[in-house]
């Protein structure tokens, strides 16, 4: 079964063009997207997360064609948890409210939100900072864990993570890597952009290496990159 | 110079004695500025927000138009307002000329472009960081907009303060559309103009001091909000 299928995709961003003739992300996979800077990893992940649409080609999410209609696409987009490359927390909200944001916009009840946020916070060792009324003053690792918790708490089928370990300390990196493994154990599909951090790469079941906006090679677990 | 010193000492007496006419003029100015700012906020904030988050053909034209309207002289708005509201004008039947409503209409028109432009520029900066993060977490367009308003609330408050300051200190519209009627449409600025023409400096200076204090307060508040934002 395929979680995400991309066919004949062309995405132009200024002078850069991403071309993906065919890409399949199997359901339950931890799918790695690797490559040098400027290869098109984030552009591809944004397409996979339905945050951008390609100029050409079609995409299928869990067997359903990705809709050009905004409302229908929002429903599809809400099956995806997306961690952006940049850690952008909302300063007007507390740590707890930041983590709860995605559930609030999906109209979950306050009880459901409290329970879900509490368990994710515990898993990522965020309980000590949960009562902070603002995200100011969090360390880089804590901020990244809050951003990750905000995605992890979502009831998604597909999680797309853009360099989840970028700029984090060892402890935060271990916690995030363990959380990614737990998503996979729960049968979720995960797509990860990575520059090659060992803790993340060892989790990949398969993936691709991008270069210059094209797939240079595909790999699956056990193969040497 | 003696008349000036006499005027200043009399002005301080007016300030501390709570003179009835003086207080009424200050209250009228505050009332008109508050209502105009509120109405302009209702129009200008959504317009600025819409421009900040949307892209459509002709957007640049609207942006340039708003920037041009920022420099519109108050007497021109007063003239246009007069043309529309006077008995011969298209809205003459409503008998609004020389009423508070006329001043409010003119002052609102004056600061809608200011509030819209400031909202647009501040939310565009905030938006660049937060829009994508909110959308990535499943927010729809409306939720993104309300989220941006929340994250940019200090900048929005600064825009409203700037609008308030602009109408509080303007004289052209208040004079031409309000008529400077005592107890009705006489504001701080129109009263200062009148008292100066009459050679009565005390009330003019006292009102000028209030104007300066309010401007100082607005500047300090705006600076505080800018630091927080």
If you had to describe this structure to a student in words, what would you say it looks like?
The complex is a heterodimer of chains A (225) and B (229). Chain A has helices at 41-48, 70-77, 95-105, 110-123, 140-152, 170-185, 198-201; strands at residues 2-13, 16-26, 30-34, 56-61, 64-65, 80-83, 158-162, 189-193, 206-211, 214-220. Chain A is α/β, with parallel strands linked by helices. Chain A has a single domain (2-220), classed as 3-Layer(aba) Sandwich (Rossmann fold). In chain A, the strands form 2 sheets. A 6-stranded mixed sheet of chain A has the order 6-7-8-3-9-10, sandwiched between helices. In chain A, strand 1 and strand 2 form a beta hairpin. The longest helix of chain A has 16 residues, at 170-185. Helix content of chain B is 81%, strand content 0%. The radius of gyration of chain B is 20 Å and the shape is globular. In chain B, helix 1 (2-17) crosses helix 10 (201-228) and helix 4 (74-85) runs parallel beside helix 8 (172-178). Chain B is mainly alpha-helical. Chain B has a single domain, classed as MetI-like (MetI-like fold, Orthogonal Bundle), CATH 1.10.3720. Chain B has helices spanning 2-17, 20-53, 59-70, 74-85, 100-136, 141-151, 153-169, 172-178, 188-198, 201-228. The mean pLDDT of chain B is 91.
